[in-house]
Write the structure tokens for this entry.
Amino acid sequence: MTTIDLPSSDRPAQMEIGLAITFRTARLEDLPKLEWYGQYTHFRNVFRKTYKEQLQGRRLMLVADCGGFPIGQIFMQTGGEARHKTYFYSLRVMDMFRGHGIGSRLLDEAENIAVAYGYMSANIAAAKDNPRARQLYERRGFLLIGEDSGRWSYVDHEGKSRHVHEPCWVLEKTLLLR
Ligand SMILES: CC(C)(COP(=O)(O)OP(=O)(O)OC[C@H]1O[C@@H](n2cnc3c(N)ncnc32)[C@H](O)[C@@H]1OP(=O)(O)O)[C@@H](O)C(=O)NCCC(=O)NCCS
């Protein structure tokens, strides 16, 4: 499709806006918003279960909030007997907000929280077909320690079982106690 030029000027009208992003734990009212207008509706039950586990102190859902909307997220395990190692997962940032450091900051904040909880190290998985995610983690000090078949299942919003098979690399970072 071709863009139709406006008669009033040679260039399209532009404006720049500064946006404040707040990093905080997810609240109940975030759950429908985490579906990102249909992109992740299939994870409705996963979000609800993870939120329940957050209330029980077993998981933490960290979101990047822009104007009350969770435009990015990372989840982590916070339970377990010995607080030796935590696991970060489900890192994602909405398409139009990528490339501005929000994903990196979510990782930083998750690390800070993990340190505050007393964890010594954190694992994260990068799908083998997502080399940019692996590079992002390696740039941030995660080291490759192995691989995983990436098989897991969940029940979608229509009650159907969905089976995921996403072979991934497993990376680990030793957390510095601050
Ligand atoms: C990975 C992701 C969270 C990074 O968020 P972000 O806010 O763009 O991250 P930052 O701005 O801090 O860092 C940018 C880096 O992220 C990585 N990245 C950018 N777009 C990406 C994409 N679509 N998929 C994977 N990694 C991406 C790149 O390494 C990029 O650096 P580069 O531009 O030098 O290549 C975001 O791109 C995303 O949500 N991707 C889709 C979901 C995903 O792949 N999650 C990782 C699961 S393993």
